[in-house]
Design brief:
This protein is α+β, with helices and mostly antiparallel strands. It is built from nine helices and twelve strands. Helix 5 runs antiparallel to helix 6 and helix 6 packs across helix 9. It binds adenosine-3',5'-cyclic-monophosphate.
Length: 242
């Protein structure tokens, strides 16, 4: 059975736990249950580019991102790849195969240097069974995944390039709106092109047109959304510019 490709595993400091503690899924656990969960968690540091899980692997563990970003993607035999999601600090992935026992549904690759916690399936499943409120939170997580994916499918089928791109930027800013740098999305234009299924050149052309209108600002490795309302209007108009 292939091992999951987490990096070096070491003991962790309690400050790392606060990221897990603040997570909406874990913040309501009583202190004893949270301590128990922490005893199961293994801390690893990973270099950018490390494959954490591969599509088709057995799902042996649940993974929480403590710092950095993880790319969830799938690729074709001819080397093209599609990014399904970017998982940031305080988010969780790998829950699908942990819960249903099926193989991993996608690849997860460290998009930056990352710190993660992994929790073994054999420990997580009995734990979640003993915590019905936590089980409900995981149902919410799966609903959120489905909504995210439905939205992506809707955009790909129904929208043109401006609509798809605007919709992807809105989805990404929604995820980060609680954070201080709220509307700054740490994503490259290549990554955006793999998310919306358009060439990097056409993405760049569209982004520059929106930068000229001050809807976005382009930074090295990031996009700052300045006018989310105009992007929303564009999506509602089916991607057609007024
Ligand atoms: P799992 O199938 O165990 O391993 C890959 C993980 O990627 C999966 O669990 C989810 O956590 C995540 N994932 C898979 N598909 C999507 C998607 N469409 N959107 C967001 N996350 C996904």
């Amino acid at each position: 059975m292939p091992q999951e490709k987490t990096g070096e595993t070491r003991p962790f400091s309690s400050s790392k736990l606060s990221v897990l503690r603040k997570h909406p899924y874990f913040c309501d656990l009583d202190p004893e249950a949270f301590d128990q969960l922490c005893r199961y968690a293994k801390h690893s540091t990973l270099k950018r580019g490390t494959t954490i899980v591969s599509k088709g692997d057995p799902g042996n563990s649940l993974i929480a991102v403590i710092s950095g970003t993880v790319k969830i993607s799938v690729s074709s035999v001819d080397g093209r790849s599609a990014i399904l999601n970017l998982i940031g600090q305080g988010e969780i992935f790998g829950e699908m195969s942990v819960l249903d026992g099926q193989p991993r549904s996608a690849d997860a690759i460290a998009n930056t240097n990352c710190e993660i916690f992994t929790i073994d399936r054999r420990e997580f499943l009995p734990f979640v069974r003993s915590q019905p409120a936590l089980a409900m939170k995981f149902i919410e997580l799966l609903c959120a995944r489905l909504r995210w994916t439905s939205d992506q499918v809707e955009q790909v089928i129904l929208q043109n390039l401006p609509g798809r791109l605007a919709s992807a930027l809105i989805r990404l800013t929604e995820k980060h709106k609680q954070e201080p740098k709220g509307r700054t999305i740490a994503v490259t234009q290549q990554e955006i092109s793999e998310m919306v299924g358009m060439t990097r050149e056409s993405i760049n052309k569209q982004l520059r047109a929106w930068a000229a209108r001050e809807w976005v600002r382009l930074e090295h490795g990031a996009i700052v959304v300045l006018n989310v309302e105009m992007l929303r209007e564009l999506v509602e108009a089916g991607g057609e510019d007024s």
